[in-house]
């Protein structure tokens, strides 16, 4: 671990020097290439798809740029609090959720939308399916070294092993879609519970309860940090002044606010919050249909077979996902950081298992760290909170599994970024 820590610190010093000496210049050709691809896709969407699709592509680009620019993680945040007690990233989650519920409350209460679709949140059932799926996802994201959003933005940054994670994420999501009726129809569930509409609190009361909970969680992380004497997150190198908007890194708290605003804009654009993994199930199901599997007969697709027949670019989540990847690519190239990484056997095996667990778990749990945790809690859904608790439990188990694949686990003596 000491060697790994030294390597991280060396890389950080190298990047810091690069910012000041000009050695780490923007990868101009890659930036131009990324903008050309984004432009072509934007024009295609404007010419062939609904009016909201180009807007969603732009939102996806901004989401991906923000995620990479701040290295805003969910997987690492959960791992740090469970391993060494550092809650800095988790507190940024609480800020993000606090801003999100503040924006979501009036949007959901009045059904505000840009394209006349209305607005509805992600309020999903609480049952065995959720418990099992979120726990699986928690383990999977620690083995795959990235959650749903992390997988996409790591691919945009050139992390080669995450392509493996994505492929098996899609496989797992497709299998989960095929099995979902068993988990939802044949096993116990208490149904969907909204803090706003199921409790009599209304959106105002649910907002107040949510803010209090976020404050309590943030306070608990501070208590845990003090008790464990947790190491601080090392600052990432960054440019100064206005250049910081495009190069270097953003503070986590700034990114938290930006992500919450972009999620609210996504809700107002397509009528539902930001999501990721439903597109993986769609991509995998289309592939399965292509090789002759009767996907349309699955309960998951009953009543929505038109999605299987339409172009993937008609799917709003697909467009957002492509935007996230392109946005992260542009952010990495702007920082001069895009580079394909080497594959290791342990990493590949962990990514295969992690991808399968995340894909299957996301279908069972009605979403991932974005759709269930971020979107669910922002929508005042009880299932979002339970997802977070079970994903943390899965993270704790995964801390003992990661070393089996040569993956590191933070220790108290480490400084990490």
Query: How far apart are the termini?
Result: 14 Å
Q: Got a strand count?
A: 2
The assigned structural class equals: mainly alpha
In quaternary terms, these chains amount to single chain
Core attributes:
two-stranded antiparallel sheet; 16 helices; 66% helix; globular; membrane; cell membrane; transmembrane helix; transport; Sulf_transp_TsuA/YedE
Description:
- The chain is mainly alpha-helical.
- It has one domain (26-231, 247-405).
- The chain has 16 helices and two strands.
- The protein has a two-stranded antiparallel ribbon with strand order 1-2.
- Helix 2 (28-48) packs antiparallel against helix 13 and helix 5 packs antiparallel against helix 9 (202-228).
- It is globular, with a radius of gyration of 21 Å.
- The model is unreliable at 1-23 and 413-417 (pLDDT under 50).
Short description:
With 417 residues, the protein is mostly helical. Helix content is 66%, strand content 2%.
Topology summary:
Elements (H helix, E strand, L loop, with lengths): L1 H20 L6 H21 L3 H19 L4 H9 L4 H23 L14 E3 H16 L4 H9 L4 H25 L3 E4 L9 H27 L23 H19 L6 H14 L14 H5 L6 H19 L10 H20 L4 H10 L3 H20 L16
Antiparallel strand pairs: 1-2
């Amino acid at each position: 671990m000491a060697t790994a820590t030294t390597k991280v610190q060396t890389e950080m010093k190298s990047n810091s020097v690069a910012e000041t000496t000009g050695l780490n210049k923007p990868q101009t050709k890659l930036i131009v290439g990324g903008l050309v691809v984004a432009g072509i896709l934007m024009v295609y969407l404007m010419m062939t798809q609904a009016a909201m699709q180009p807007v969603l592509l732009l939102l996806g680009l901004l989401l991906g740029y923000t995620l990479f620019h701040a290295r805003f993680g969910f997987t690492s945040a959960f791992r740090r609090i469970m391993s060494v007690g550092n809650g800095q990233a988790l507190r940024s989650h609480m800020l993000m959720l606090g801003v999100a519920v503040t924006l979501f409350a009036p949007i959901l209460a009045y059904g505000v939308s840009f394209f006349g679709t209305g607005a509805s949140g992600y309020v999903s059932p609480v049952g065995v399916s959720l418990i099992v799926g979120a726990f699986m996802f928690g383990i999977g994201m620690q083995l795959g070294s990235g959650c749903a959003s992390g997988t996409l933005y790591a691919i945009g940054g050139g992390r080669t092993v995450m392509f493996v994670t994505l492929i098996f994420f899609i496989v797992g999501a497709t299998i989960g879609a095929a099995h979902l009726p068993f988990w939802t129809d044949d096993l116990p569930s208490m149904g969907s519970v909204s803090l706003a509409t199921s409790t009599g609190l209304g959106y105002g009361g649910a907002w107040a309860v949510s803010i209090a909970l976020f404050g309590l969680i943030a306070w608990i992380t501070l208590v845990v940090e003090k008790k464990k004497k947790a190491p601080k997150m090392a600052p990432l190198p960054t440019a100064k002044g206005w250049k910081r908007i495009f190069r270097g890194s953003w503070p986590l708290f700034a990114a938290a606010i930006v992500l919450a605003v972009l999620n609210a804009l996504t809700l107002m654009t397509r009528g539902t919050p930001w999501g990721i993994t439903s597109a993986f199930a769609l991509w995998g199901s289309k592939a399965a249909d292509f090789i002759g599997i009767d996907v349309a007969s699955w309960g998951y697709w009953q009543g929505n077979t038109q999605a299987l027949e339409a172009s993937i670019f008609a799917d709003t989540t697909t467009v957002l996902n492509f935007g996230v990847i392109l946005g992260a690519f542009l952010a990495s190239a702007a920082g001069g950081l895009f580079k394909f990484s080497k594959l290791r056997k342990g990493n590949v095996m962990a990514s295969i298992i992690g991808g399968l667990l995340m894909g299957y778990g996301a279908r069972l749990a009605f979403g991932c760290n974005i759709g269930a945790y971020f979107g669910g809690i922002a929508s005042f859904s009880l299932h979002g909170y339970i997802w977070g608790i079970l994903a943390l439990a899965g993270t704790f188990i995964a801390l003992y599994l990661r070393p089996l694949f040569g993956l590191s686990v933070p220790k108290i003596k480490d400084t990490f970024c």
